[in-house]
Amino acid sequence: MKQIQIIMFVLFSLLLTINILQAQSLKISPAELTLHLQKELKLTKQQVQKLQVIFEDMKEETSELQVTLKEKPEELEFALEEVLSNTRKKIQALLTDEQLKLFNTLNIFPNKQEMDNKQEK
């Protein structure tokens, strides 16, 4: 059972990394990410506008990090985790309590502790 959980965690981590790289390379645009959350969380127009800015900022930050830290993969991984964590906090700050509960179940941007917890189980 433990091995299956470890395999699931590795696959999840791989998918998360792929999603980040796709978003950075414009395969998944900030608009598409916003649309996904808009549908799932039933966001207001104001929330959608703020979310678009958050995702644009995330895309810009991750692109810059990939350039500046491309020769330092461990630092890049840590920096990308920080960007995701900050993005998650920004998103959480604009949601209602009900939306926040749903967002947390979607686990779109898991934080390092959540990923570590999954690995330990």
The ordered H/E elements are: HHHHHH
Beta-strand percentage range: under 5%
The biggest beta sheet is recorded as: none
**Which descriptor suits the 3D outline?**
globular
Which residues form runs of ≥5 with pLDDT under 50? 22-26
Oligomerization state of this entry? Answer: single chain
Radius of gyration in whole Å, from Cα?
A: 15 Å
**Helix-strand category:** mainly alpha
Count the domains: 1
Record field, number of beta strands? 0
Helix content: over 70%
Please outline the helices and strands.
Blueprint: H1 2-24, H2 30-41, H3 45-68, H4 73-94, H5 97-106, H6 112-120
Protein architecture, described:
- By secondary structure, this protein is mainly α.
- It is 83% helix and 0% strand.
- It has one domain (2-120).
- The chain is globular and about 40 Å long.
- The model is unreliable at 22-26 (pLDDT under 50).
Keywords:
121 residues, mainly alpha, 83% helix, 0% strand, globular
